[in-house]
Amino acid sequence: MDKGRRKVRQGTVVSDRGNKTVVVSVERNLAHPLYGKQVSRNKRYHAHDEGNQFQVGDVVRIEETRPLSKLKRWRVLNLVERPEQ
């Protein structure tokens, strides 16, 4: 896969319980096919976090990569925003 064409998504970390793995929830908005109303859809991606540095609530960017395990096909690129504590 060409590095320039890898998909990039932005979402919120919803779980950091796995070792070197975070679960990122990505929300997207789309128009309902019949009624036209904006509807939000969520999808969860398992992403590789090499240094175990991301926590629940962090907003991160993830990038598509080769399969790393049964569920992991994404890796965390960088931290976008960390919530205040």
The share of residues in extended strands comes to over 45%
Largest sheet: 5 strands, mixed, barrel
Radius of gyration: 14 Å
What is the oligomer described by this structure? Answer: single chain
Mean pLDDT: 95
The count of DSSP E runs of length 2 or more, i.e. the number of strands, is: 5
Amino- and carboxy-terminal Cα gap:
39 Å
Low-pLDDT runs of 5+ residues are none
Choose one word for the global shape.
globular
SSE order in H/E notation? EEEEE
Q: How much helicity do the residues have?
A: under 10%
Instruction: Figure out the total of helices.
Output: 0
Helix/strand class: mainly beta
- How are the strands of the biggest sheet laid out side by side? 1-2-3-5-4
Describe the structure.
0% of the residues lie in helices and 52% in strands. The protein has 85 residues and is mostly beta strands.
